[in-house]
Design a protein that fits this description.
It is a single chain. This protein is an alpha/beta fold and 545 residues long. The protein has 3 domains: 103 residues, Glucose Oxidase, domain 1 (3-Layer(bba) Sandwich); 102 residues, PtsI, HPr-binding domain (Enzyme I, Chain A, domain 2, Orthogonal Bundle); 262 residues, Alpha-Beta Barrel (TIM Barrel). The strands form 2 sheets. It has an 8-stranded mixed β-sheet with strand order 1-8-7-3-4-5-6-2, covered by helices on one side. The chain has an 8-stranded parallel beta barrel with strand order 9-10-11-12-13-14-15-16, surrounded by 6 helices. Helix 8 links the parallel strand 4 and strand 5. Helix 5 packs antiparallel against helix 7. The structure holds phosphoenolpyruvate (PEP) and magnesium ion (MG). The site of phosphoenolpyruvate (PEP) has 10 residues, from strand 10 and helix 17. Belongs to the PEP-utilizing enzyme family.
Length: 545
Amino acid sequence: MLRLSGVGVSDGRAAGPVVRVAEPLPEPPASPAVTDPSAEAARISPAAETVANGLFARAAGVEGDAKAVLETTAAMAMDPSLSSRAEQLVNQRGLPAPRAVLEAANEFAESLRATGGYLAERVRDVHDVRDRIIAELLGVRPPGVPTLLEPSVLLARDLAPADTADLDPDLVLALVTEEGGPTSHTAILARSLGIPAVVAVRGLLAETSAVAAEVDGDGGTVSLSEEPVEVRSPERIDTTGWTGDGGTSDGERVKILANVGAAADTTAAVSAGAEGVGLFRTEFCYLAAQDEPDVATQRAAYAEVLEPFAGKPVVVRTLDAGADKPLGFLDTGAEPNPALGVRGLRVAFDRPDVLDRQLEAIAAAAEDSGAEVSVMAPMVATPEEAAWFTERARTAGITRAGVMVEIPAAALIASELLEAVDFVSVGTNDLAQYVFAADRQLGALAGLNDPWQPALLRLIAMIGRAGAETGKPVGVCGEAAADPLLGRVLVGLGVRSLSMVATAVPAVGSALAGVSLRACERAARDALAAPDVATAKAAARAAFE
Ligand code: PEP
Ligand code: MG
């Protein structure tokens, strides 16, 4: 057995045969030049269509998030600009069709990468579509997850949403990836399936002779074996008892909410039994917009997301532009350190008119939809900033205003911050990156961005105490809230709403319903006292035994 370490991002233990997710195809050659360019070019659109049809057919067999992911990828394969650019390359340079698709898709990916941030993350989807079309043109097996025939441990470089959208959860024992971090798609997926996952496992792909693996999601290790091992299925949290009313077994109320970015996410949130929305990332509606949408356009877009939650709480976050999510119409210019630059609410200090128009649209959409809307500002550093935002929200007619705690300074001054607002919500993704000075998107620093880091937990404890002192609610809407065990610890630290990717709602809600507030507080106390991630997790687990 060869034992490798990584970052455990979803708890539990499992063992079984390994299945490797196929690596991308080798680069198709640019020569020899084709003899009949127009016949060669004519192969491209049908190949793209076959790929799209295959993805649409898979989409037809699933629901919710999986359907949306597959349909989005299929639509990308059908994008006529990709096919026509590839055809042009065949006609102009005599390139073989697979090579032309490679070059056209790479140009497209490069322009997304140059845009940066979340659009840059879509580069992976473009590469996925590119490789599927090339495989179709070459008549070979496409990269990605092969059809699973028995319960297996999946080993991959990283997993794209389209790779995993229609995975049969009963056939996946665990996920292990060489890349990725605590907020990666792999982590989110594993938690939603309730299976163990370890990411950022260096050296994983170099081990080609293993046939089986034992995965420890708690300890963040994977043991690879050249002999078969006894199959061990992970113990899944029983979610059948999830009623949609969040709280502990002894009746302490904790709202279990969903994070959404667009209308498509609301279906998944409603069907998962979320009590409302704890984070509506409005910037996701406008990642590709070059001009600011007018108030009427924004109103319609927000109302579409809010309508399914009539009568329920929804926290609408104002535009979190900048750094990893640049918006074309709020360009803050080149910055040496964008994550430390003019982003989030800071953009609004220069452009209060944009914030005011957005608040006007949110207030109108709230009325249109009947949802109980609050607004929340991202990237707030000081109580003055929080007060400035609250004042503008109230002027726009929105009575409930809060801020995110994502900057360590805001956590350190939480009591005064809470005086200026109605609530706070902790963005653990950014708070971790700023506490540890570790880019949240870098797999190599994934261990520092682990939300179980006691230093992060101690900051959250300060915020929880400030909430209790001021009598104002503290929530968590970063990825930490999607971990069922950590969710219990957060409640023990004083958090009274947990907002997460919709698929995690039943597991987190059920896990909390099975324990008392007293037990959560004990687990929190023990995790806080731990010197490191592994000890913190073990201490929390022991507190519930
Ligand atoms: C966070 O930082 O934890 C958060 C929820 O905001 P985002 O992930 O959108 O930056
Ligand atoms: Mg954030």
